[in-house]
Amino acid sequence: MKEITNVTIISTNINKNILQIYKDYQLIDQSFKIEDLLQYKKIIFFNVFNELSEDKIREIYSYLDSHNILYINVTNNIEEVLFTDYLIVYDKEKILIEGTTLEVLKNEKLLKRIGLSLPFMVELSLYLKDYNLIDKIYLNNESLVGALWK
Amino acid sequence: MEIKEIIKQNGIIGIISNYENTLKYTNLVKDINIKDISKALKMVLLDDSYLDKKVSELTLNEQFKIDLMTKLNKEVIIIGNLSKVLNSKDIDYFKKLFLKLNNEYHKKVIIIDNDVKVFFSLVKRIYVMKNKNILYETDNFFDRNLYKYTVCPKIIDFIFYLEDHGHEIIKTTDIYELIKDIYRRVS
User: Domain containing A79 — which CATH number?
Assistant: First the structure.
């Protein structure tokens, strides 16, 4: 298996069994202090970002990046997939699809079939693209609104 | 107002708070004392193949469903952490189930979650609670003060952004309504 760098794992049925292959990663499954993460080289966050704002999640990832700490975020919140460039989708305990995040998200029908939606900005962009109002996917309010109201 | 007063209200109530669920049942699913367990399992999107499984060995998603199954006959159903353990398809199903339990069977449903999105098209009123105290309450998803206490859902954040930048837009929690309104305004 290739070395995984910073990844989001999204699962339709979140289960710690899928973590068995990441034995050299430190599991974080409860609230934590950001400075306590420094003692680890590799971290798996397990469903811990639900109550955090987007800014806070970015701050944590930026902090880990600046200290060369690798991380995997296991979640069932589709909005969190946009924080990493690589995405693995599990259906129960099997990998359904993996790849760069935006490439994986293009498989809308496959994701919806297993009960996953798309991140709001991606879904909104795709619909607006269908209406020929924009020509690509925008991932934040500023760029999307800028493209719509030129 | 205390939780006892909240329970007295009609309709489905949303509470923004942490929800710690301790599993009441840990043994085999079939040992749970429920009349017509097969039917109850179906109602929570499970089937008879779960009867011989231990509740403690199920996934968080499945444990949520078993927990809900044990509460379906209660007059007041208190359930939490939908956003943490369910996928969007499951959430849509259970929202319809809660509405049915409330409208047709007159059960009181209290949902505890940190994700306001779970409450869209479902609850009449939202309370923010911490340590059993009510910090805030509102019946408006577009009440900006609500988001001092919890993360603002992306669709509402987008609408707030438009308003803040001088664009008129519909206040909706439905992405299709939002798209239609954007189309009307920019095409």
Answer: 3.40.50.300
Report the topology of domain B3-142: Rossmann fold (3.40.50)
Give the structural domain span for A143. Answer: 119-150
Say whether pTM exceeds 0.95: no
Query: Beta B125-130 vs B133-138: how paired, if at all?
Result: antiparallel
What digits encode the pLDDT tens for the residues B83-97? 988 999 999 999 999
Within chain B, which residue ranges are assigned CATH 3.40.50.300? 3-142
Q: Which residues of B touch A (CB under 8 A)?
A: 18, 59-62, 83-90, 114-115, 150-151, 153-155, 157-158, 161-162, 165, 167, 175, 178-179, 182-183, 186-187
Burial of A55 (0-12, 13-18, 19+ CB in 10 A): exposed
> Per residue in B113-169, pLDDT tens?
999 999 999 998 999 998 888 999 999 999 999 999 999 999 999 999 999 999 999
